[in-house]
Structure prediction request, 175 residues.
Amino acid sequence: MISKKMAEAINEQINKEFFSEYLYISMQGWLASQSLDGMANWMEVQSKEEHFHAMKLFNYLIGRGARVHLMAIDEPTNDFENPLQAFSKALEHEKLMSKNINELVDVAIKENDHATRSFLQWYVDEQVEEESTVERIVNMLKMVGENGNGIMMLDRELATRTYVAPADASGATGA
Ligand code: FEO
Prediction:
């Protein structure tokens, strides 16, 4: 049986993952309003990944016999100055999420919960990928600056991203 402290920490992380989904939907909306449909597509895929992250934790808690406690989701930022600012905020957010996951692992270690520690390794690895993917886009946006052609080329590249649900039964309902 999972400890009360561990379950509470996972419930808080579920809320943070749903907030991430919400934040990326908000960025999707703003980018679409700027006719940057490829970048909006990238954010849509990202928001679906966040939904998966939340549901994977949700299903894990249920599997361990704990109660899921859904909390209110904060309002995300809805307006951005330009694509660079939106993606920079996304990078900043992913760095914060990595910190949150590390703190969750710390709780699992303190609670001597080896099963949860092992389960969370997937998130630790996922965060490395999340940060590096967004960082690459931020760097490209910095390179193109105000160059319209550069922005359009990047927009076209980001239009090709598609959502692929990870082959993981514990998060299958997140797809
Ligand atoms: Fe679920 Fe992008 O952190």
About this structure: Residues 114-144 form the longest helix (31 residues). The mean pLDDT is 95. The helical segments are 4-33, 37-63, 83-110, 114-144, 148-158.
